[in-house]
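Deviation from plan, reported transparently: pyridoxal-5'-phosphate complex.
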Amino acid sequence: MGGLRSVTMVEVSKFGSKIARTSGIGQLMDDLGSALAKGGDVIMLGGGNPAHIREVQRQCRQSLRRLLDNEADFASAVGDYDPPAGNREFIEAVCELLREEFGWDIGTENIALTNGSQSAFFILFNLFGGVFERGVKKKILLPLTPEYIGYSEVGLDDELFVAIRPGIQHLDDHIFKYNVDFDRIDIGEEIGAICVSRPTNPTGNVLTDSEIKQLDEMARLRDIPLIIDSAYGMPFPNIIFTQAKPVWNNNTVLCMSLSKLGLPAVRTGIVVADKEVINMMAQANAVMSLAPGGMGPAIATELVRSREILRLSRDVIKPFYQAKATAAVAQLTAQLDGLDFHIHKPEGAFFLWLWLEKLPITSAELYERLKARGVIVVPGHYFFPGLCEDWKHKDQCIRINYAQDDKIVKAGLSVIAEEIRRVYTRSK
Ligand code: PLP
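Because the crystal trials were delayed, the predicted structure below was used instead.
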């Protein structure tokens, strides 16, 4: 994968070799960049890029036009640094939305922005995990793996994560769902925080309300925060196809983002947490980047104030991805007919997680074979940060992004199904 520059020639610190050496997420973003640059040559079903949804783009263009037409607003949007917690007007609008829609008892002191939610995770995981005073080491518990590849390398300390193998529920011959296996979870002193993505990247799993309730209770009992990564979730872009309740209390750290709505380039993450955590986020922002960028807030403030962002999420974005999920499952199910395969029930986000239990090669080898045929997916083994135990399952899955245009996804899925059939048939 990828052609990232190596840093092995230059002597660097332990921090340098950790953060600047080739990582799964670095390779993934590199592949994504090259595929987008090459245009039509590569079918990119790999990265986490959202679709360019026409109606979303139209509204964003309208916001930008309004901004360009207002001299004072434009001057301030591009000409001023925001405070380290981020743009005040945007924070006020988000705060009001969360109070009114969900009844949460929060104020603006409970919200900070970051340059994409990815940098929020960098700060949070290193706040709650790593070496504490008196040399005590704490870890971040991921109670349900597979989990987001982007968490893997953010720890300044080695082995920052401890992950729990999930329960597997077969819903029918070809559809399954992961559950949190609470019997395997034992939270000791060494755990500094719990984190889940909901919906989960890579599987499209949405943790049930009861799983979230149980995790919340466990976290509060241990006096450690529960971090909920809502990059695809509530209140926006709300790419959730099941029933799920939004949850927040002052022990929850809720991470939201403008990216999956269709604005990954503006790099705007939103953290909702207890004010002490928010103060620390703001301080870290100041050190790392002075202030979060202001273009995301400039585009989105009015959308949030008017609640148009909720209408877009509910009436445009969610049905857009749900239709794609249904089509992708139907196509794969038809084209893999007669073979051994399992698809995780797509409950949200925009990925299909395909489990090929009897695959005679590893998913990394399958990735290479697909790449040679011009189709990029992500091999599953990257999505198990913190799960040290030997588990064949890690090498039996691939993640497929179905956000691209229907024609591209259809062509990509056909190649994937054909290649899987070849691999299975040749091994007989
Ligand atoms: N969390 C999850 C689960 C993701 O999939 C991503 C991006 O793909 C992020 C967080 C980070 O997104 P961003 O930094 O664009 O907000």
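The CA atoms of residues 2 and 306 lie 42 Å apart. We consider this an acceptable substitute for the interim report.
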